[in-house]
Amino acid sequence: MKKIFVLTFLISSAYLLSACQPPAPDKDVPKTDLFGNSKIDNSRLYDNITKEKAETQLGVPETKDVFEPGLTEQARRAGLTDQDLKDVKKKLAESFSMDEEEVQITAEGESTPEFMTGYVNVGESEKGGIYFAAKTDGKWELVHNGVGVIYCSVVEKYNFPIGIIPRCYDIETGKTKDRG
After folding, report:
1. Is residue 12 part of a domain?
2. For the chain, first and last CA: distance in Å?
3. What is the DSSP letter of 168?
4. What is the spatial distance between Cα 96 and Cα 131, in angstroms, rounded to a whole number?
5. Tell me, what's the pLDDT at 63?
6. Cβ(62)–Cβ(78) under 8 Å?
């Protein structure tokens, strides 16, 4: 009787644990969430990271080891102003649902009067992600807030310079793509 109980327990445990595994690569992943909203299939991104070596997908701003909020001298010489920085900071704060005082950003030397990149830091952490913003119709639009990967479709929509975003993630192929 004891053997049957142990055997039944092991079989049922194996069955329950197998339900917790991610879907096999050849299985279709649903394109909607539980509420019917469409979502992007990140399973290929996961496969690329686990099967290949993960690559840096974005250009790294010049002050990669130091976080000092504000415009770099090179960004200022390129034509960016403190008002540009404030406008983008406001957009980033809105994207994180935070007060502007809780968000710190840099504008790096790769930035231009039409495209801005730098680090965004929220809360108490030492360094956050890399953000991208584009000026359209005289106003700054936040293109990427530093969370997740930057998709090629977004980069192409705004026509970012290759020097600012040299690589992006192509949803169609499921791979990182060099833009150069």
Report:
1. no
2. 69
3. E
4. 12
5. 47
6. no
- pLDDT at residue 80 tops 90: yes
Burial of 154 (0-12, 13-18, 19+ CB in 10 A): middle
Q: Which residue has the tokens 């977004």?
A: 154
Examine residue 120 and state whether it is found in any structural domain, yes or no. yes
Contact 115, 160 (CB under 8 A): yes
Domain that holds residue 80: 70-147
**Range scoring the smallest mean pLDDT among 8-12, 53-57, 152-156:** 53-57
**pTM over the 0.70 mark:** no
Q: Where are the beta strands (DSSP E) in the chain?
A: 70-71, 103-107, 115-122, 130-136, 139-144, 167-170, 175-178
pLDDT of residue 24: 56
